[in-house]
Specification:
The chain has 3 helices and no strands. By secondary structure, it is mostly helical. Keywords: Membrane, Transmembrane, Transmembrane helix.
Length: about 60
């Protein structure tokens, strides 16, 4: 759960940065956010969560 919350915060900051630098319009940011919500409720959420967890484990293992 901690990894999921951290990823949400990280991607939230990234979208906010893109909106602030005008690299992404408000409409594009809204579409990206809605895509994330719909993707989270689909059957693809399980594999994406598993992949994220494996990547977090890999990155933490590289630091040791």
């Amino acid at each position: 759960m901690l990894v999921s919350v951290s990823a949400v915060v990280l991607f939230g900051f990234f979208v906010a940065f893109l909106l602030r630098t005008k690299a992404m319009t408000f409409g594009s940011g809204f579409v990206a956010t809605m895509f994330g919500f719909f993707l989270a409720s689909s059957c693809a959420a399980g594999p994406i969560n598993s992949f994220s967890t494996q990547m977090a484990t890999l990155v933490s293992a590289l630091g040791h």
